[in-house]
Amino acid sequence: MTDTLAVTDGRVLTPEFDVVRADVLIDADAGEIIEVGPDLAGDAEETIDATDSLVMPGLVNAHGHATMTLLRGYADDKTLEDWLQEDIWPAEAELTAEDVAVGTRLAAVELIRSGTTAFADMYFHVGEVVDAVREAGLRARVGHGVVTVGKDEEAARDDFAESVAVAEEYDGAADGRVRTAVMPHAPHTVGTEYFEEFVPRAREAGVPLHFHLNETETYIDEIDAEAGVRPTEYADDLGLLAEDTWVAHGVHVDASEIETLAERGTAVAHCPASNMKLASGMAPVQELLDAGATVALGTDGAASNNDLDLFDEIRDAAMLGKLAADDAAAVDAETAVRMATEGGADALGFDSGRIEAGANADLAVVDLDAVHLTPEHDPVSHLAYAARGSDVRHTVCDGKVLMRDRDVLVFDEDDVRERAQEHAEALAARAEE
Ligand SMILES: [Zn+2]
Asked: Which residues contact 2 (CB under 8 A, 6 or more apart)?
């Protein structure tokens, strides 16, 4: 007899985006949904109550840097280039493995509290990230970020080699909840010769790639000056684009780049809040969708957002998508919620993002019994435009309850916060020395 968990007495957002009264029966050992239907609570070992609530797929944060929670509010109101060079890179140069352990746990608590069950992480000290994910009970696609500009040849090669080695080492960790990718930072921050050497190695290892694409005009100008082509074409020539690859941002992509991304099946993790805050620009999300590209949502690091509540990204994506398209019908509510759920799961290669038999049991139970969600004409509209991460009552990942009635079960939240405050203060002091 397997351990079972039932989510009872709620309404369920189906893959067709209907909202139906149903229970969800979960195989807690396998981490899979067994059945969605009426009256399934019967023999379940454990139940969670979803009265007056909506059971939706757990949100998927498809691009970020979890440890950057330690730099939340550290430097704001600058362009991407100034912000990176003047504030973020000097601070990151002082980061220790323990900072990553502490920062990733802080991020994990925030993700769980806002209904996110899977996330992507591009950072350093990946072993610490993996330990935090294991403890959190979340699902993640993690990797070591590679930058070769400003490094000598040996250091540059070591950095890329480490990204491949780390991806091979940790793939399948935490009972399969951790998957990996090789993560070169961006086409213009990694030398061509290193892509030529290591991209085939990543492909041989069977791990996906993830990188920042066309976040600002600078990304494009540098590749244009060096190679005389747009970055998407450059990346394609180097074998960087594939179905298991996903890119972050894609803000400044022209029509031919949109077509290439769609043709290669390379998903785009759209990060609307980060793009607005750094004034990077407006990604042509509706055009990407119309071309058949998979679009997911990401918060990016908490230093450019400044939180990890993906409900903000859903609303921002819908609103910014309309502005970018100059069309109020663009990126409608359902589309925005799909990007944060099945779009993210597709981008990261997880069988999540849908509440149906056989899928991963990754879900969020959203309390609809709130002033700002009254009255209710259309719950999908509320998810896109009115709900917040703090409306999430329960979070379940891989069939395990990570938060029950707003109580995070996997961490001592006060301890995580206290340690984060200490480490953030010490980090800032080192960076400013
Ligand atoms: Zn990023």
From this structure: 27, 28, 29, 30
